[in-house]
Design goal:
This protein has about 110 residues and is α+β, with helices and mostly antiparallel strands. The chain is built from four helices and four strands, in the order E-H-H-E-E-H-H-E. One of its GO terms (molecular function) is monooxygenase activity.
Amino acid sequence: MKIVVPEGDGPVGIYGFARPKPERADELERLLLSFVAPTRAEPGSMQYQVHRDAADPSTLVFYELWRSADDLRAHLARPELAHFQQHRMDYLREDLEIHWLTPLSATP
């Protein structure tokens, strides 16, 4: 799956689900959490969260809010994110499920 960021002006939000292979679940959780601090420090990052689904604790949920689509594209081009995209199926039992959001109340 190639992540294609929607065009548009203003902030962009994204949430998604990562359903790891049972034997790689802890490793994937550590990996996703390792992205938190560097991502929050990136220009344009307004919010970056990793959660565990309360109804299905094996599923990890991520939420991101970016000042612009260009900022998100720059984030996705970072080497560690590009590497994860190339190797994500080593960790996942099914591909990432991604949903795009158009924030109505975000302030950049």
